[in-house]
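Appendix B: complex inputs.
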Amino acid sequence: MKGQILLISGPSGCGKSTLLSRLFKEEKGLYFSISSTTRAIRDGEIDGVHYHFISKEEFEDGIKKDEFLEWAQVHKNYYGTSLKPVKEQLERGNIVVFDIDVQGFAIAREKFKSEITSVFVTTTNKKELKKRLEKRNTDSPETIENRLMNAVGEMEHILEYDYFLINDNIEKSYRGLKSIVRAMRLKSTNINLRETIDNWIDC
Ligand code: ADP
Ligand code: 5GP
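Resulting structure:
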């Protein structure tokens, strides 16, 4: 069986991590692709769980060694997805979850077109995004401004994604995300056609 990729993008602060952490608690067979980043670790984040927090030099060395499936500079920091663990999980038939930006999506889509189901998540409006970033209290006012500016550009890419979720209500958007995962599990491409037909005839 071949695995699949669930790829989520959306403005920083819209609620992607909140939705995903609930998904991981409730769904089996999902593997989170832990990105590497050069940004500073936030309160509550764990190295090797939320990200691999590495130096700029280590990141650039990884680029030289072609270790990244994709990488991008987002909000003035490097972010990248390591290829090796993703391949291993796909070979095991798992769903690999990416939380990456629109630039990363464009590259990942070239390499794993048939494996990716993509979802763009956002807030009802920019004002609400600002409120959430301020409430989260992890970024300086300057960083928040930078993230808001970036968000406007990211919104231009909505139509490139398979699904669109407005996270105005966590219960509602979580139900939407869960339906997408269920639909992924029901894809006909998941089955081994020969085995399915042989078993069907034998019984
Ligand atoms: P992201 O991973 O997209 O950067 P987070 O998951 O860290 O965003 O969420 C940013 C903030 O918004 C957090 O404080 C989170 O608790 C809050 N949040 C997430 N979803 C909602 C929602 N539907 N309504 C209100 N606040 C939310
Ligand atoms: P944050 O700093 O809020 O955790 O993430 C900032 C942005 O970087 C988000 O849009 C997130 O989706 C994106 N991001 C996280 N990991 C990766 C990655 O490996 N590659 C790319 N291209 N973007 C990433």
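The beta strands are 4-9, 30-32, 36-37, 52-53, 68-74, 77-82, 95-99, 116-122, 163-166.
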